[in-house]
Every structure is written in C-alpha cells, then in structure tokens.
Amino acid sequence: MIVFQTELHNEIQKILAEQVIVSTDAFVVERPVRSEHGDYSSNVAMMLYAQNRDRFSQPRELATFICHNLEQKKLNYLEKIEVAGLGFINFHISKSSLSDFCAQLVGEKEPLVEQTGEGKSCIVEYSSPNIAKPFTVGHLRSTIIGDAIANMMQYAGYTVHRDNHLGDWGTQFGKLIVAIKEFGDQQENEKRIQQSAEPMKELVALYVAFHTRAEQDASLEEKARQWFTKLEQGDEEARRLWKLCIDYSLVEFQKIYDKLHVTFGLKTSGVREAIGSSIFPESFFEDKMKEVIEELREKRLLTESEGAQLVFFENDAFPPLMILKKDGSTLYSTRDLATDRFRKEKYGKDILIINEVGAEQSLYFQQIFEIEELLGYFPKAQRKHVGHGMFRFKDGKMSTRKGNVIWLEDVITEAINRASVINAESAEAVGIGAIKYNDLKRESEKDVVFDWDELLNLKGNSGPYLQYTLVRARSVLAKLSQSFKPSQSPTLSQSSDFTHPDEENLARALIHISEYFSRAVAHYAPHELCTATFELAQLFNTFYATCPVATESDPTIRSFRTMLVRAVERVITDSFAMLGISAPVRM
Ligand code: ARG
Predict the structure, then answer these.
(1) CB 473 within 8 A of CB 569
(2) Tell me: the pLDDT tens digits for 263-273?
(3) Do 15 and 88 have their domain in common?
(4) For the chain, what percentages of helix, strand and coil (3-state, to nearest 5) are there?
(5) Ligand 1 centre from 577 Cα, in Å?
(6) CA–CA separation, 35 vs 504, rounded Å?
(7) pTM here?
(8) Pairwise CA distance, residues 117 & 156, whole Å
(9) Residue numbers of the domain that contains 212
(10) 357 lines ligand 1 (CB under 6 A)
C-alpha cells in the first residue's frame, strides 16, 4: 500500500540531493488543516531557506524551484502541485490514485501500520494492581491503555511480552497480617475471608480497619513492620497468610480481566496461569534484589542517610530515592530495579520496556530510568513510562486507606446495564467498549471526569458510536452479498468515477489512515488511533446519508461505493483490534 506522505518526503529528499540544496534541518510533509490546501503540504522551503539564501531570495522562490523539479518527475499520483502562502508546497492527489488506493486497502491484507517492530521485542507492563487492595480505576486505566499499546506494538511487528507487575510484596502485608491476627479472633477472620462471596471486600475492610486503629495506636505500625520482616525472612505463618491474600485477590482480578478480554504473558488455564504464566509479580524479585544492592554499592551510588540507603542524583536533578529502609527492608524501588535487571538477562539488552503506570509516578520513573542508565542496565531511550491521569468522580481521588472505594465490578455492571438500553443482545460488548474507548480517546496523561452520558453517547466521540458505525458498514455489505464475512477480500470492478463529493471526502481521509495509525504506534498513543478512527467514522456516516449503496441501481456506482464501505469496514476492524474493543453483531 502506498504511503503518499513517505513517497513525497522521499521525492523531495531526492531533489534536494540532486540540486545540491543545503538541508540540515528536518522538514515535514503533512496533511494541511484546510482541505482546500490539498492532501499534503510541505514546509520544506521555509525550513531550508535560511541555509540557501545565497541561491534563493525568498522561501517562495525555493518552493517554486522544488515544485518545478517535482513536476519534471511526472509523479502519476499527483494531480496538482502548487506553491502557497509564504512558501508552502501543496500537493493534490489525483482521483484515480485515490480510488486505486482504496481498492488496495480493501484487497491487500498488508498491515495498516508501518512495520517498525519487525525483528524487535518489547515488554509492555500494565495493570499491576496490588494484592489485597481493590483494583482501582487507576489500574483499570492502566489495563485498558496498556493492553491497547501492547496490541499496537504487536500490530507493528514487535514480539510483545505482556507483563503484570502485581504488587504482591511490601509492608501492606504486614498490616494485613496484624489485622487478621489481632482484630477479633484469627480463625474467625480467616474463615470469613475464605467463605465470603466477595473476599476482596473482607481484605479491604481489614486494611481500612488497620489504618483507623493505627491512628489511635502507633504500636500497630511497628507490629506491621515486624510482620513484614518475618515475611521477608520466610516465617511460615507469615507466608501462609500472605498466600491466602494472594489467592483470593487473583480470583477477583481474573474476573475483571475476563470481562475486559485482557490477557498477559501466555494463555493457559488455572487462575495464576490465566493471569499469565510468564508474568513476574513483585514477590518474584524477593531473592533477586541482593545483586542490585551489590551493583549499586560497587558503582558507589548508595549513600547512607539516617540509617537508610539512598541514591542521590548529580546536581540534585531529582530528589534522592530510597533503596533500603533503615531496618534493611527493601522497597518498591528495589524491586523495580531488580525487575529490570532480570528483564535484561531474560530478554536481552536491546529490549524496549514500556510501563503503563499512573502519571503520579512519573518522577519516580525518571529516577528509576536514571539509575538504570548509571547501572548500565538500559539507556533511557529504551525505557518509556506512559502515564495516565486520574479518574475524577465527584468526590475526588479515592483512597483505600479510608475505604471510600469504588468497586470496579460495580462500574462494569452499571455500564453493561446502561448499554442494554441501546441493545440488550450486545450490552456487554457495548458497555465494555464504552468504558474502554472513554479511557483511550484522550491523551492518557489527562484526567478523566467520568460521565455516563458522554461514555454512551451514540452521536458523539464514543465507543458505541464507532461500534454502531462498524455494524452499519457491515450490514450494508451483508445486504450486498450473502457471503460477506467481516474484513474479507472483495472481487470488485474498480471505477475512478467519483459521483458525489462525500465519496471523495471519504477517500481523501482514507489515504491518511495508515500515516495516523503508524504515528499513533510511534507515540505509544492510542488516542491518536481513536481520533483518526472517529474522523473516518463521521465521514462515513455522512457518506452513508447521501450516497445509497445497496439500493443504488447503477452497478458501477454501487460497486465503487461498496469498495469504499469495505475500506472503512477494514480500517475500523483493525482499529478495534488494536484498541481491544469488540465489534457487536447488532446494535
Ligand atoms: N502496583 C503499583 C501501584 O498500584 C503499580 C506498579 C507499576 N509498575 C512498576 N514497575 N512499578 O501503584
């Protein structure tokens, strides 16, 4: 499939070389904001003018020169090239090339995304909830956005290791153990957890109770620390209670992943395996932190401060990061370093690592990346933190400590209930699609104000709107052919005769799709994928209103429009595959 943007960029590059034009600055070929400026526009003359003043008196003159040379090349896909404004070059793609392009889009199964990942691997780490704490909306965001990024990377040719850095280690277990053992009768407590229909709620209640009581009784914190140390030392009772918490939490998490159709590592059976046999939770690194501490010591990166061990950064670029507490116990940071050291050993030093974790940890990740570069684990270019903003409900941020928790299952159930008003049969696909798209459609760093009406708005930029569009496209195709299967290659007679401006608008948008999709992958930005898909859906729905397809009596026009519908169907299908949104059969 031809990517006009790349073609034009290369053609300009060639001319610059042939005509010995000084070009040290980067220039772009982009889709202009206003469609009357053509399909593509380049700022090449404005970018390079300053370096070529001796030959050209103005950017426009340089633009005209490049334009003239391009015309000599007689590029068959161009209908018109013109110089505009202060020296932009605008390109108009010919109608016959537009329709050829659409036919290719339908006919070839070539991916819509530049295969930048061929022969490369990456780790996408997402979700990462904490055991014995609720799966928060933050973890939901990480799950949805991280899964989409993993899909996108895979689509771009990467081998993707999907990891879930479960928080199954740390001082919170000391707290829980104290609560289970000391708040009431221990056996009763354990029985209550084991027999409850909602064991997570029991665990969280104990966690909340711990914090309420600890406010009155400071000795509880100390006890919790001691229990965590026991856990670290392998104390049998501590281990047993820790395991209890893990088992009940995993069952709960798996329910959510099943609903969302999100998987990790390799798919096998059994709860732990289902979450992923090749995922590496925090506890996995329990015995792998020693090496990290040694390496930090060797490189003289650790400094003692009030008994604790910290890394201080050159010129105080970042605040110091604690690696060992004063009682010698390890921290979240210690485990992260051990995790990445392990990843280097397991997957090799060239692996790209993407962590989808709340934006509030962005400073933390900068500290970690810096330390890992100093340790020689990974250069920063191979590390990427994709942060997500907070979800805002009316009462602000949620806190497990205080117990004002929104249960995710409730949110999911409510979405499905509300979606059943749209269509009972597709309620689950639509409800979940709505939740996912709402998280994916905006820059992930931004906070989200949760609004059911926006989520399920069939006329706006929502999951249901796109699903509706896809169902519509497929039903047109089904009407045309009894044998239609989603995204099947067609046998079509092509015609370059656009008979309606809405056909042309649609085709002119389609030529940019793979550019947008490829850029979305390069930016690890599902929202760019959403924006492009939404724009296309809108143009398609306009086209649908003005251009009959199945009922069109002229066979040439009908066949040409069918091709456009197929192209749209294919694009949305692929976009959904990347976004992790399912296509309902009916709506
Ligand atoms: N469990 C952590 C939390 O809930 C997120 C872990 C993110 N990943 C990491 N490698 N630190 O905040």
Answers:
(1) yes
(2) 997 443 445 55
(3) yes
(4) 55, 10, 35
(5) 26
(6) 12
(7) 0.92
(8) 5
(9) 170-252
(10) yes
